[in-house]
Automatic annotation (TrEMBL):
InterPro entries: Peptidyl-Arg-deiminase_porph. Pfam families: PAD_porph. It comes from Marinobacter similis. It comes from the Bacteria. One of its GO terms (biological process) is putrescine biosynthetic process. This is Agmatine deiminase. Keywords: Hydrolase. GO terms for molecular function: agmatine deiminase activity; protein-arginine deiminase activity.
């Protein structure tokens, strides 16, 4: 008899947050002095609540991080400790190359889906092998790591912890990921591997400058089994207005298991942020990370930051809202949730 599976919601108890540290061999090379402070801020915030699992290709940097962050945690009397592992990586997007967890009748299992840099857009071979490298180094303790021969990024699926997944058709149906699978086959795989019994497909919504083919974690997120927050655009002159309005209508049409509509909360769209070439960057408040006792919220030095903080405080009254300026992260077209992956309780021990 097949063991029943369920993918935990992000608010389920965690043992650690995984970070893949930027190094000079990544596309961050030219702006390491800008992006490393963001990673440090995320790391120090996490240590206030739980452990860190950090990997970096540069052995000396890994050793420095372990010493510095653990000294910080000890001096501050924090509960978290940093477990640091030298491991090769092409980039830093732990959300997408990190393992996805499922709870089974036999205990927790980490799933190692394949990663091909969002349909072959960038080099990916080191990132695709990273989870196995970490497992071989003992980073996941005795929790099994199960390989799955299917391209799936963590940022492309949201779980309510009760068997419902939220995703986008633009991402999962992109032929550069799993060309042999149609929508029905992909749904079946999500049922089999992640234990889902419902998939809510968003067919609209995008952010300019996004490399991921509209990952759901940039657009709409479960806040609880009955509430979804989503990025909204109220400016008809903005290029996002049509697609995000259509996405909002889709969300209004979604139903919970009992047939009732979801409670919906709109998040503001930050004022446009552009790189030096004039390309608009995908800044979004939906790219937050829920951890034990807190919510890490990306902010951008935009006028909408305070509204986003206030909205999140209302949505998560039992968690501390920790704003982190992630303007440097969007230079490479991602944000806070994109560079982190939560690891469930009982996996990582300091």
């Amino acid at each position: 008899m097949t063991s029943r599976r369920v993918m935990p919601a992000e608010w389920a108890p965690q043992s650690a947050v995984m970070l893949t540290w930027p190094h000079p061999g990544t596309d961050w090379a030219a702006v390491l002095d800008q992006v490393e402070p963001v990673f440090i801020a995320i790391a120090e915030a996490v240590l206030r609540f739980e452990h860190l699992l950090i990997s970096c290709e540069h052995v000396v940097r890994v050793q420095e991080l372990e010493q510095t962050l653990n000294r910080f945690a000890r001096e501050q009397g924090l509960p978290g400790r940093a477990v640091c592992v030298p491991a090769p990586a092409n980039d830093t997007w732990a959300r997408d190359h990190g393992p996805l967890a499922v709870q089974t009748d036999d205990g927790l299992t980490l799933l190692d889906f394949r990663f091909n840099a969002w349909g072959g857009k960038f080099p990916w071979e080191k990132d695709d092998a990273l989870n196995r490298h970490l497992a071989n180094a003992g980073a996941f303790g005795t929790t099994p790591l199960e390989a799955v021969d299917f391209i799936l990024e963590g940022g492309s699926v949201e779980s309510d912890g009760e068997g419902t997944l939220l995703t986008t058709s633009e991402c999962l149906l992109t032929p550069t990921r799993n060309p042999a699978h149609d929508r029905a086959a992909i749904e079946q795989l999500l049922f089999d591997q992640l234990g889902a019994d419902r998939v809510l497909w968003l067919n609209h919504g995008f952010l300019a400058g996004d490399d991921t083919d509209s990952h759901v974690d940039t657009l709409a997120r479960f806040c609880s089994p009955d509430r979804i927050c989503y990025v909204a655009c109220d400016n008809p002159e903005d290029e996002h207005y049509g697609a995000l309005s259509a996405m909002a209508e889709e969300l209004r049409e979604f139903r919970q298991r009992d047939g009732s509509p979801y409670q919906l909360t709109a998040l503001p769209l930050p004022d446009p942020i552009h790189d030096d070439e004039g390309t608009r960057l995908p800044a979004t408040y939906a790219n937050f990370l829920i951890i034990n006792g807190a919510l890490l919220l990306p902010i951008y030095g935009a006028p909408q930051d305070e509204d986003a903080i206030s909205i999140m405080a209302d949505l998560f009254p039992d968690r501390e809202i920790v704003p982190i300026n992630c303007r440097a992260l969007v230079l490479q077209h991602g944000s806070l949730h994109c560079v982190t992956m939560q690891i469930p309780e009982g996996v990582v021990a300091s």
